[in-house]
Amino acid sequence: MAALRHDRVETPLLLDGPINGERFLVYVEQVPAPTLSPGDIVVLDNLGSHKGKAVRQAIRKAGAKLLLLPKYSPDLNPIEQVLAKIKHHLRAAQCRTINNLSQAIATILATITRRNAKLFLP
User: Fold this and answer.
1) What does the pLDDT read at residue 98?
2) What is the mean pLDDT of each run of 10 residues along the chain (122 residues)?
3) CB 21 within 8 A of CB 48
4) Where in the numbering of this chain does the Tc1-like transposase DDE domain appear (predicted)?
5) How many CA atoms lie within 13 Å of 98's alpha carbon, on the beta-carbon side?
6) Which residues pair with 4 in a beta bridge?
7) How far, in Å, CA of 114 to CA of 46, rounded?
8) How far is residue 82's CA from residue 116's CA, in Å, rounded to a whole number?
9) Domain 3-120: which CATH number of 3.30.1330.60, 3.30.420.10, 3.10.300.10, 3.40.640.10
10) 72 CB contacts (<8 Å, ≥6 apart)?
C-alpha cells in the first residue's frame, strides 16, 4: 500500500497477506493519518476495506476530506498506475525474499520524482 500526493509517493507499507478492513484501518491510523493536514483530500477506491466507518473517522480526525471513487473505476485511481509501475519493475528484479523485495520497492519508490508523481495525476 502507498499514498500518492501531487509531488511524491509516501507512506508505503508492505504486508504479507491480503488487505482487510482491520489491516487497512491500522494502516490509515498509523501511517498516512499522521501525515495529513487540514484541507487534504484523500481519494479511495470502493474496495470494501476502504469503506469502514473507523477509516472515515481517522481521515476526518486529521482534518482531511474523504472522497470515494465510483465503483469499478480503476482508470480514475492514479495510485493504480503507480502500483503497476512498481509491479513491472519488481517482476524484472525477480526478488525471492521479503528483504530483497522490500529493498527493491524502496529503490523503485526512490525513482518516482516530483515530476513523475504529477504525471500519474489527471
Assistant:
1) 87
2) 83 88 94 94 86 93 90 72 82 88 87 69 58
3) yes
4) 1-101
5) 5
6) 9
7) 27
8) 10
9) 3.30.420.10
10) 46
